[in-house]
Design goal:
The chain has 13 helices and 14 strands. By secondary structure, it is an alpha/beta fold.
């Protein structure tokens, strides 16, 4: 018989962290633990208000399947018991952790993937004045791939300043739906060819519900990446038709490692560039995505770096290199 426990844990951020959707000084995550035959398995999710979630609503969702989960609900059954989202992600990742421990096989092996290797991760700079963001980019000299959060056209000046100050860096510009279609056109037209060559992508420039209303030229540069407008495999075709050529896959959106594996495979077949993404959360949330990061073109798994304190047995970061998790944290 399994035993399920659920808790809400809070992690302070290193100063205020700001994106177009708002600012936070701490993040609340839901931690799920499963105990079976002396094995303890865990999963973490970050409920996100943008998607109508709260820690309390996610805990309530998980409670609806408590009896089934404790009676032995498996990974395949879970996919129809809960909808895609943070709640299913926490359960799914805990079940993969439990499966690995019970079978004494690493998760990557269970998935039929290669052993995870150290990879370069992007590092995120939150919204500030263009001058302050330039200073933050200079301070982040250990990171060769920077993601900058923007909230309006002032982000253009911030991007230009950073690219001028950091000749060694590549840039991801993340608007989190903050631009209009007209502003996006202006933004792209204002970038020099030298700057465009070092901008990997512009992430979710316009509102998710406006993407199909304002299709973009798929040959324009920098390419556009879908985040808020990508949740599952069913979104891929419409995003491709709208001119998006990259997608940000997050387990909290698609509902766990099981669906994340299938989503990445489908996105690859469609021809998308793929980013392994995350919410700001602890190492326990990064660990499952690191099983898939080797299948992605860009890794953006810096969530724990943005926290004031991480979990025990935290993932190792060495400058901009992120290492696979140790079994004491998650997996086998």
């Amino acid at each position: 018989m399994r035993r399920l426990s659920i808790s809400i844990d809070s992690f302070a951020t290193q100063g205020s962290f700001s994106i177009a959707h708002g600012s936070v000084d701490a993040v609340d995550v839901v931690t799920l633990s499963l105990t079976q035959n002396g094995q303890l398995a865990r999963g973490e999710c970050r409920p996100y208000a943008r998607y109508g979630e709260s820690p309390q609503s996610v805990c309530a969702q998980i409670e609806t399947i408590r009896d089934k989960l404790e009676a032995g609900l498996n990974l395949a059954q879970l996919q129809t018991e809960l909808p895609a989202g943070a709640a299913r992600n926490a359960v799914d990742c805990a079940l993969w952790d439990l499966k690995a421990k019970m079978e004494q096989r690493p998760v990557w092996d269970l998935l039929g993937l290669e052993r995870p290797a150290p990879l370069q991760t992007a590092y995120t700079l939150s919204i500030d004045t263009p001058r302050a963001m330039q200073a933050a980019a200079l301070k982040a000299s250990d990171y060769g791939l920077l993601k900058i959060k923007i909230k309006d056209m002032s982000g253009l000046e911030a991007a230009q300043n950073i690219l001028t100050a950091r000749k060694d860096a590549r840039l991801i510009i993340d608007a989190n739906e903050a631009l209009s279609a007209a502003q996006l056109t202006q933004f792209q037209a204002s970038l020099t060819p030298e700057h465009i060559a070092r901008i990997v992508m512009i992430e979710q420039p316009i509102a998710a519900d406006k993407v199909k209303d304002y299709p973009q030229d798929p040959n324009s540069k920098p390419i556009l990446c879908a985040d808020e407008s990508l949740h599952g495999r069913g979104d891929l075709q419409s995003l491709w038709q709208a001119g998006y050529r990259a997608v940000n896959v997050k387990l909290d959106k698609c509902g766990g490692l099981t669906e994340g594996t299938a989503l990445i495979k489908a996105a690859r077949a469609q021809g998308f560039m793929i980013m392994a993404g995350c919410m700001v959360s602890s190492s326990l949330a990064m660990a499952p995505m690191l099983m898939l990061a080797g299948q992605c073109d860009i890794v953006d798994l810096d969530g724990p770096i943005l926290l004031a304190q991480d979990r025990a047995h935290a993932i190792k970061y060495e400058k901009d290199i992120i290492y696979p998790p140790q079994p004491q944290l998650w997996g086998y």
